[in-house]
Sequence to fold (260 residues):
Amino acid sequence: MRTNRPKGNNKSSENFFEAEEIIYGWNACEAFFRKRPDSLIKFYTLKEHTDALKSVMYFCSQKKLGYRIVEANDLTKIAKSEHHEGIIMVAKRTFFPAWKNVLSNSSAQCILCVDGVTNPHNLGAMARSGAHFGINACFILNSEMKNLTPAAYRVAQGGWEYFPHYFMNDTMTFIKELKQLGFVFIGLDSHAKKNLKEVIEQYPIKKTKYAFFMGAENVGLSKELRNELVMASIPGTGVLDSLNVSQATAITLAVWRMGL
Fold:
């Protein structure tokens, strides 16, 4: 895939790899190209899709960027997945403004903090909800991930293009700094005594900055985080212990949004 790979195992070659990313799936690629076309490096697609991609092909010819028409099995090999939906784009990675600058903006009202969630399908579904309901940023905490995977982009259906995301290594320092910006911290837990609507409505919704914290499946939020949060639950029948984290995220953001 990366045909211009630099030789050697030095630090500069590591930076080269971190500077590009692979995006596949129609909606993910369409949103990427609409929002940041100048980040496109090259793309691969099938012959049957060339009519739909004429504007992208013209852009590439104008910018002297490469693209290739390949067979479906070639796309599968490049993507390392059968779920590419007939298109793969290679892009320059986006480096977002410092998160404090983003959140210092008075219009920043809601952020999503994801603790230990590494499943790309869950992350993608959460980003899709985040874009739909209008979060201002997403923070991925306590994760060994450094970059989003192509699957996370595909499942998000373009959602990642609508807000900045950050991978945070020092979670508790981040929490301390986030407090200084005036955010209210709400964590989701199926066993919390207060329900989500009650907790959100404790504060003047239109004037409050909310940070919603979602934990990994089966593990939940880490203990050190829980001590910093107001915990809330999403009430149900009790037949099942909890919701999938991406479902819980969608409901949480919907409840917040409907109060605005």
Q: What stands out?
A: The domain at 99-258 is CATH 3.40.1280.10 (Alpha/beta knot). The longest helix spans residues 120-133. Residues 1-17 have pLDDT under 50 and may be disordered.
